[in-house]
Amino acid sequence: MTEARESAGPRARRAPGTPCWVSLMVHGLAATEEFYGALFGWEFRPGPQQLGPYVRALLDGQDVAGIGRLTPDQRLPVAWTPYFASDDVDRTADQVRLCGGTVAVGPLDAAEAGRMAIASDTSGAVFGIWQGASHLGATLSGVPGTPAWNELLTFETESVAKFYETVFGYEEEPVVSPGFDHVVLDLGGRPVAGLHGVGHALPRDRGSHWLTYFEVADVDETLRLVEELGGRVLGPAHDSEHGRVAAVADPEGAVFSVIEDPH
């Protein structure tokens, strides 16, 4: 689930379909910066303002994520949203529509940074599409404070897996386990995202949604800090085959998971 410490480099172009960025839209930008700055050690600088006030989060001077402020006319969820790389956002957006998805925002230019769209899949989960120009996505991964993995939580995986495979060219790697509906999406033989069918355990107030995992050095210490900073711990930490993990929410309710790399 997590990769070795690496700097992707500012000009490292991702293959189409590669998760390249995560972005959060909130109502209170300053308070959100304060929360994540204290939690992950992020610093912030202004980014493209096409959808309103927006900042990029930096760790050790390298881009790791983005946070924007919702304007009154925007009906986007307060949620972390993964962006998938594309060589042609307009063509990918057309493919999304052809496969039964919806394009909610764009495609539009984000200044000189690139071109983007925000869409939803056939299950209603929101994701982004990014065609990088001067900004190709995150330039640091595999260290605490960086996104480690993205997983779609949905009712069942079969139909939505076909959507992502057709739109982005993924290969499907089923996780064979009785009673466990889980698919790993591979790109060029490398796992890049997961789909998890949870049936009626899917939260009714959220529906299908993407969940971003952030790497941390110590999950239990992170949970203490989340609560101290005004967030919520959604369940006890537990050990998985990928490391110790827990789900939390920030003060505005954006849900994410934190994972401690076992290595």
Your description of this structure?
With 263 residues, this protein is of the alpha+beta class. The chain has two domains: 14-139, 2,3-Dihydroxybiphenyl 1,2-Dioxygenase, domain 1 (Roll), CATH 3.10.180; 141-260, 2,3-Dihydroxybiphenyl 1,2-Dioxygenase, domain 1 (Roll). It has four helices and 19 strands. The chain has helices at 29-40, 89-98, 158-168, 219-228, and strands spanning 6-7, 19-26, 43-46, 54-59, 62-69, 80-85, 102-110, 114-120, 126-132, 140-141, 147-154, 171-174, 181-187, 190-197, 209-216, 232-233, 238-240, 243-249, 255-260. The strands form three sheets. Strands 11, 12, 13, 14, 15, 16, 17, 18 and 19 form a nine-stranded mixed beta sheet that branches. A hairpin with a 2-residue loop joins strand 17 and strand 18. The longest helix has 12 residues, at 29-40. Residues 18-132, 146-261 form the VOC domain. It comes from Streptomyces collinus (strain DSM 40733 / Tue 365). InterPro entries: Anthracycline_SecMetBiosynth, Glyas_Bleomycin-R_OHBP_Dase, Glyoxalase_6, VOC_core. This is Hydroxylase.
Derived from helix and strand composition plus strand pairing, the structural class reads alpha+beta
**CATH architecture title of the largest domain:** Roll
Number of strands: 19
Shape: globular
For the biggest sheet, the summary is: 9 strands, mixed
